[in-house]
Amino acid sequence: MSDILRIENVTKRFGRLAAVDGVSFGVPEGSCFGLLGPNGAGKTTTIEIMEGISSPTGGRVLFRDEPIDRRFKAKVGIQFQSTALPEFITVKETLELFSSFYDRPRPMDEVVELCSLADILGRDNRKLSGGQRQRMLLALAIIPMPELVFLDEPTTGLDPQSRRNFWDLIARIKAERTTVVLTTHYMDEAQLLCDRIAIMDRGRILDIDSPDALLEKHFKGVLIRLPYDGCCSDALSGLEGLVMRDDSIELQTEALDRSLKELLAAKVDLTGLSIHKPNLEDLFIKLTGNALRS
């Protein structure tokens, strides 16, 4: 699968601060690519450079092996995290307004069907629910029939059902071979939707690969996690794969029975113990030392 978008040694400086520091990666065509990072990681700045909204201090962005230019903007759709819709007009009127901006817009019936808008076409934009509003914004992003769509935290604040409905819409868009670049604060969302994920912190890419490949690379076996009050630290220090945090301990192990016996031998209280297969949340914390929203 060839890369539709490629970022080569991109840097962005604000005075002495390197918000983006030598970032390079490719976005495979037809895939869903996730860019994840805690607040202040440089993720938003990187996305703005990829979108052509901001210019890099150094490096370059290539779209189909050519530097991005004015023509690039006609081939992308963007759903911003926060967008103001025209007031006092209906969903249908808004779709018609935005369609008039393009020489060859996607047919209206396709937009309505793809984004499940048939039941709200006559509704005033001011009266849309959170999920309806996000479907509407996605519709506006795909009207120009883009080859590449940027979705910036599209499900933040939505209830679980609305989130899942939106995931279905993203899957439909991807099925058309449209490439999706996604930022999200939800690890289950990233693991479900993304074919490839880049984890970013302090302006640099920490690792990049498919979700399964990343988990296989960084974890073996299962994770044992339990509350920790600071006792028995000397006995615990010899346990292989142990990570001690402020209020918990975490043990990565391929020999569950042996590890549990070692914890008991160290006289650790096992109340509150949990055992689970590592997921992207665990990976994110391991690489950055932070939960995603910190």
**How many discrete domains?**
2
What would you call the structural class? alpha/beta
CATH superfamily assignment of the largest domain? P-loop containing nucleotide triphosphate hydrolases
| CATH fold name of the largest domain | Rossmann fold
Largest sheet: 6 strands, mixed
Which helices and strands appear, and what pairs or packs with what?
Blueprint: E1 3-14, E2 17-28, E3 32-36, H1 43-51, E4 58-63, E5 66-67, H2 70-73, E6 76-79, H3 91-99, H4 108-114, H5 130-142, E7 148-152, H6 160-175, E8 179-183, H7 187-193, E9 196-201, E10 204-209, H8 211-218, E11 222-227, H9 233-236, E12 242-244, E13 248-253, H10 256-265, E14 274-276, H11 280-288
Parallel strand pairs: 3-8, 3-9, 6-7, 7-8
Antiparallel strand pairs: 1-2, 1-4, 4-5, 9-10, 11-13, 11-14, 12-13
Helix pairs in contact: 5-6
Please sum up the structure shown.
With 294 residues, the protein is of the alpha/beta class.
What can you tell me about this protein's structure?
The protein has 294 residues and is α/β, with parallel strands linked by helices. The protein has 2 domains: 3-215, 3-Layer(aba) Sandwich (Rossmann fold); 220-277, Alpha-Beta Plaits (2-Layer Sandwich), CATH 3.30.70. It is 33% helix and 28% strand. The chain is built from 11 helices and 14 strands. It has helices spanning 43-51, 70-73, 91-99, 108-114, 130-142, 160-175, 187-193, 211-218, 233-236, 256-265, 280-288, and strands at residues 3-14, 17-28, 32-36, 58-63, 66-67, 76-79, 148-152, 179-183, 196-201, 204-209, 222-227, 242-244, 248-253, 274-276. It is globular. The two termini are 34 Å apart. The mean pLDDT is 89.
